[in-house]
From TrEMBL:
Pfam families: AIG2_2
Name by which UniProt lists this protein: Gamma-glutamylcyclotransferase b
UniProt keyword list: Lyase
UniProt source species: Sander lucioperca (Pike-perch)
Binding site for substrate: Y37, F38, A39, Y40, G41, S42, Y156
Keyword Ribosomal protein included in the entry's annotation: no
Taxon lineage: Eukaryota, Metazoa, Chordata, Craniata, Vertebrata
Keyword field contains Acetylation: no
Length: 182
């Protein structure tokens, strides 16, 4: 079983119990003005996500059951930005992916879709159920289409490693089961 923990204790402390205690109906639309987004890749980094999505605020840390984190490229083509594999998720019974649930304004939805190359067909938005302390939340997330497995690019890993949490959670050894999958 490959368990990919993307968030460490420093992030869990930052979230705190107040986010967990928020009243929430459980669907991906908190109200018609906001939505919940489950991030598992480079958008775990607040500074990256908020560049084009300023409304993003941490809601909680959560896990996605029966999925695993893998790295690859859309149709095998390395992106001009990352020059190698980037994160996506795929169904995998028994595995789980940890990530951050962000609360975002509907006004940022188009920007987020653009960042994930939805119009180009690279990723598809999906709504999946994630689990957090005592709650189940339906969140928007993205899954790469036509993924061809590839190791994460040095540029992609460098962005991840800028955050102290990534340095402790994403050492090279911890990536090997994910990179070598399938």
């Amino acid at each position: 079983m490959c368990v990919c923990v993307c968030v460490c204790v420093c992030e869990l402390r930052a979230v705190g119990s107040t986010h967990e205690a928020n009243q929430y109906s459980g669907n991906g639309m908190e109200n018609r003005h906001t939505f919940l987004y489950f991030a598992y890749g480079s958008n775990l980094l607040k500074e990256r996500l908020q560049l084009k999505n300023p409304s993003a605020t941490v809601h909680c840390v959560a896990r996605l059951k029966d999925y695993r984190l893998v790295f690859g490229n859309y149709k095998g083509l390395a992106s001009d930005r990352w020059h190698g594999g980037v994160a996506t998720i795929e169904h995998s019974p028994g595995d789980e992916v940890w990530g951050v649930v962000w609360r975002m304004s509907m006004s940022d939805l188009e920007s987020l879709d653009s960042q994930e190359n939805v119009t180009l067909g690279a990723y598809s938005p999906v709504e999946l159920s994630v689990k957090t302390k005592g709650h189940e939340l339906n969140c928007r997330t993205y899954i790469m289409n036509s993924c061809v497995y590839a190791p994460p690019s040095p540029q992609y890993l460098q962005v991840r490693m800028q955050h102290p949490c990534y340095r402790s959670c994403w050492g090279r050894d911890s990536l090997q089961p994910v990179v070598n999958a399938k």
